[in-house]
Write a structure and sequence with these properties.
7-stranded mixed beta sheet, about 270 residues, 9 helices, single chain, alpha/beta, 11 strands
């Protein structure tokens, strides 16, 4: 069997850091990054080099934040990709390992967040499904206080990022990955849902169910397309990745209005 050679461009720590600076990443800022390693091309050194390049561009006073979500810690009754037999549900609820900020791996957010989660000095918020990890001087202020009944709302790192004046970098990722849009959902009256997961308490492991705001990334692509038509979004290449850089506060404010008009919460999502 013929093995195809890797496709380019070839990226190094220096070339990626240079591209990030050219895009507009500023030393000392706080940056939330959604990423796709494969979109960059061939990275000499892999995901760790991408983290290094991001930290190089931000400098020692900057703070790098990524989603480190672990949605598999959830009620199996809601699983659809793939579903599991109903006869297994009670057993899964009884056996699901509790969230551990130190060891629970990321799921569905890519290898770069998993790398940053294990980075020296990284801190991680405590939500068992929608945690964020951060490295830098403001890491603690951003990740602390993540409430169990607030996945991506006012008591989550997204609101702390807004307070910090953070910007968002979509590094080869689309607007469907933009978690900040979910913060807007918490600011629109809408349905509540029961959300379940395994957590560790002082009394030991516990299967917990809380009431939280319903969230969905449905139509986020359309929301993002409208946002970049009407608001400042810097667009350029980092390695081979089509990338976007924009203000988190502006994105959330725009999303509140757009979602209210185009995806009203009365739809039940």
């Amino acid at each position: 069997m013929t093995i195809k050679p890797p496709t380019g461009p070839m990226c190094t720590r220096d070339s990626l850091a240079s591209d990030l600076r050219a895009l507009g990443i500023r030393p000392g800022e706080t940056l939330l990054v959604h990423s796709s390693l494969s979109s960059l091309g061939w990275v000499c050194g892999g995901s760790g080099v991408v983290v290094q390049a991001l930290l190089d561009a931000l400098g020692p006073e900057g703070t790098l934040v990524v989603p480190t979500h672990s949605g598999g810690n959830s009620d199996p009754a809601s699983w659809g990709n793939p579903p599991v037999p109903e006869a297994w549900w009670d057993g899964i609820r009884a056996a699901m390992p509790p969230f551990d900020a130190r060891t629970t791996p990321c799921l569905g957010v890519g290898v770069i967040p998993e790398t940053l989660r294990n980075w020296p000095g990284a801190l991680r918020s405590s939500h068992p499904q929608t945690s964020f990890a951060a490295v830098g001087p403001h890491a603690s202020a951003i990740v602390e206080g993540h409430a169990l009944d607030c996945r991506l709302g006012e008591r989550s790192p997204l609101a702390r990022l807004e307070e910090a004046g953070a910007r968002i970098l979509l590094l080869g990722a689309g607007f469907d990955a933009c978690t900040a849009f979910h913060l807007a959902e918490y600011r629109i009256p809408g349905p509540r849902v029961q959300n379940s997961f395994a957590v560790m308490t002082p009394q030991g492991r516990h299967w917990s169910t809380v009431s939280d705001t319903s969230i969905s990334a449905d139509r986020f692509d359309g929301l993002g397309a409208a946002f970049e038509k009407e608001r400042p979004v810097v667009r350029g290449a980092v390695g081979g990745a089509d990338s976007r850089l924009f203000d988190l506060t502006e994105a959330v404010a725009f999303a509140v209005g757009w979602l209210t008009e185009h995806r009203p919460r009365a739809e039940g999502i």
